[in-house]
Amino acid sequence: MNKYLAATAVVLASALPALAEYPERPINMIVAYSAGGGTDIAARTLAPFVEKYLGEDASIVVLNRAGAGGEIGFTELAQAEPDGYTIGFVNTPNLLTIPIQRDARYSLESFRPIANVVEDPGAFSFLPDSGIETFDDMIAYAKENPGKLTYGTTGLGSDDHLSALQFERLTGVELKHVPFPGNADVRTAVLGGHVMMASMNISETIADVHEGKLHALGQMAEERWDGAPDVATFGEQGYDVIMGSQRGLAAPAGVDDEIIAKLEAAVKSAIDDPEFQEKAKQQHLPLAFMSSDAFLTNLQAQTETYKALWEKTPWVQE
């Protein structure tokens, strides 16, 4: 009997994934936006610390797959082999709004969330010599020049785009949307004078604000982010716009639960690491950890919210 049990244990052990040895080869981390943007910076800042807590042999390779508001990268992640060797950064609301606004080759069910890392409020920013220093200036210009105030975003259905649409509805102004592959491209466009306004997350704006390259009218948070204490919220200035982007890690659906748990634990340890926290502060990353289960519940709730919004007011290119 003991010999039988021993033999069975050997068979079962050989059939189970060698979790203790995971990862045995490099892990690809897909970033669905261009290099140099907020998501890319977060990914490249976090990756070495996740490697550290996965084990000394762990290696993570960041791959940029920009385009279509994130759809190209999200699709590649969704269709990857669910073996734990392809993970990716996923961003709200793009991850959720793309399948609502058009046929996509993925849905929320295509992913297994690992953990949320960042929660980043939106912001409107202009060049300091634009003549637009306040919301009153912006609204006056937009009303005098309907459709002439151009703004850059990371694409249709992004938080950058939806916040601008919400602002248009609140104020009755007409703006001109110009989508780009990623926030690095939006930044280049506004600094080069190709668009008048950047609708970007505050973490992606604040360094240029501190250096005097951009002027932020406000941040779309309930309370001021401590990384930008001098930038008033929209609400403080009389505009009820609360919008931002969560950035977290996910894997293709079907990855083994124990691998997900190991990745989640490594992300949590990385975020708690004082060295990472200092680097995150230097990179202006508003950290907000959420476990795999909590992140999934949050994403499911947001999906229902955006579906209802789409039914009431579809966000479409003018």
UniProtKB/TrEMBL annotation:
Keyword set includes Thylakoid: no
Name assigned to this protein: 3-phosphoglycerate dehydrogenase
Keyword field: Signal
Coiled-coil segments on the chain, per record: none
Family recorded in the similarity comment: Belongs to the UPF0065 (bug) family.
Signal peptide, first to last residue: 1-20
Transmembrane intervals: none
InterPro entries documented for this protein: BUG (IPR005064), Bug_dom1 (IPR042100)
